[in-house]
Amino acid sequence: MTAQLRREAEIGGYEAAAEAQEAIAATYDAIAELVGGRSEEIALFDNATHAWNAAFYSVRLRPGEQILTGRAEYGSNVLAYWQAAERAGAEVVVVPNDEHGQLDLAALERLAGERTALIGVSHVPTSGGLVQPADQIGRIARGCGALYLLDATQSAGQFPVDVDAIGCDLLTGTGRKFLRGPRGTGFLWLRTAALEKLDPFVAEIGSATWEHSHVNVLGLGAAVRQALDLGLEQIGQRAIAPGIQAPQPARRPARRHHPRPRTDPLRHRHRQDRQGGG
Fold first, then answer.
1. Dihedral, CA atoms, 267, 269, 274, 276, nearest 10 degrees?
2. 89: alpha, beta or left, given left = phi > 0 and alpha = psi -120 to 50?
3. Element (H or E) spanning 45, and its range?
4. Do 121 and 134 form a contact (C-beta atoms < 8 A)?
């Protein structure tokens, strides 16, 4: 990143970007490899929220349709669901949890149907150790023909994520969390087959947003490549190891209650009299 910054200062932003085209393209390739997609299905953003908004607000919602989501969702996502549903005359349905705290798959399967336009889930919530059963949710989404949007902000880089195994249509992530990349980086993966069901909520040409930080793009590419080289399986095992290996707090031995003997006040006073003399 510092080398690219220095080069921009020396020869200018356009020229430095032109020199770095191969490395910039490698960032798209690396993210595609990270999620199991293709580089032409990757779009870069300045954070995960903007990537998620670009995905969600492109979903066509019609009156009477429904968005299915869970209880452990990111707050901003839920607000967007409610806003879009209110505008379109659609409905947001919150699927209950099962006894383990995950999204209840049986309830989801009962609720999903012809009216379901979107199933939107956070793969890993922002707090706690919950991991949603993303692949099983994908199976249900395919069964009812709904689009499936997976927020992988907390999972991309923490353990393997494969869009084909999961069966999602859209996936968003960030560089700054478990990938340990620079701030100001986010990405969207979009399944090509899902394009016919989407209407981009912003229409523009590339030159309209030319103020793109290629320095950040290169930093993101380096972070993703490092994760791939280390191995996501190994990273995932290391991520869960503290919870597995953490010593359990030692149990304090049970304390037996021994009642203190009651003092006979007469005997106690007699002993004091004899000790006091007199």
1. 160
2. left
3. strand 42-45
4. yes
Render pLDDT for 65-86 as a digit per residue (tens, 0 to 9): 999 999 999 999 999 999 999 9
Give the pLDDT confidence of 167-177 residue by residue, as tens digits.
999 999 999 99
Tokens of 150: 């997976």
Q: Say how far apart CA 159 and CA 165 lie, in whole Å.
A: 14
- Cα–Cα distance between 178 and 8 in angstroms, integer? 28
Helices 48-56 and 75-88 cross at an angle (nearest 10°) of 20
pTM of the model: 0.83
Structural domains in the chain, CATH included, are 40-201 (3.40.640.10)
Q: Which of 153-162, 168-177, 195-204 has the lowest mean pLDDT?
A: 195-204
- Give how far Cα 60 sits from Cα of 63, 134, 243, Å: 10, 22, 41
Interval 113-132: pLDDT, tens: 999 999 999 999 988 889 99
Strand partners, 118: 67, 147
Helix (H) or strand (E) holding 78: helix 75-88
* C-alpha to C-alpha distance for 178 and 187, rounded to whole angstroms: 14
Let me know the angle formed at the C-alpha of 215 by 212 and 221, rounded to the nearest 5 degrees.
100
Among the listed residues 86, 163, 152, the one whose alpha carbon sits nearest the alpha carbon of residue 121 = 152
> What is the helix (H) or strand (E) element at residue 172, kind and residue range?
strand 170-174
- Section 238-250 average pLDDT: 65
Give CA torsion, residues 261, 265, 270, 272, to 10 deg: 80
Measured CA to CA, the distance from residue 143 to residue 164 in angstroms comes to 15
